[in-house]
Design a protein that fits this description.
By secondary structure, this protein is α/β, with parallel strands linked by helices. The protein has helices at 7-14, 18-26, 43-52, 67-70, 75-82, 93-103, 112-125, 182-196, 199-206, 211-227; strands at residues 4-6, 33-35, 38-42, 84-88, 129-131, 134-135, 151-161, 171-178. A hairpin with a 2-residue loop joins strand 2 and strand 3.
Length: 228
Amino acid sequence: MSDKLGLEEAARLLGLSEATVARWVRQGRIPALRERGRCFFVEKHLRSWAKKHHIPLKEGRPPASDPAEEERVRLSEAIRRGGVFFGVKGRTVEAVLAETVKLVPLPENFDKDSLLEHLLQREELASTGIGEGVAIPHPRAPLEGLPGKAIVTACFLEHEVDFKAIDKKPVFLVCLILCATTQLHLKILSQLSFCLRSTAFLSFLKDCRSADELIKRVEVLEDKFQTG
């Protein structure tokens, strides 16, 4: 295989649609270069990036799903499935995560104790406090038994909690992300990161008291994300 990959080859290797990979290039989320107006990828750099982000390579297989289906992944729908909760208790990271796990809607036979343990292990590796008072806890890898569609449970905390965030600011909002595949997780994370780059959206979050209003704001931003 050539050391350089075109967009189609890179998308096939990652098991993603060309539209998704092209958008990540525009957003600077994936290593790429341009020559004569065309987008290329250095294979060894792409493989290293995929390994770092726990993306299993497809090695010659076609994309896992058609582009139209992949583009229908929406953060707002994931939040509707996961729910928005206010006044969530807890004064430590462990206590907050324990309360969050209780609230997330999952099948009755799903082992929530195991989920909590995975979340705590992830925090031990590195804080999921991404700054500006927001944390995005998630397991290191997809867990067996998770629903096929993404779940994001948004918990506004009763008390701000020190998550050892990168900017040292205490966390007031926890967004638990649960996805059955790494690719789905990355798509949801990309949309959430896009929303959180909006200063106006961050200001809104600090005074948010309505689940419906939160989802409406997310819908506006994710529409911009899809066309960006």
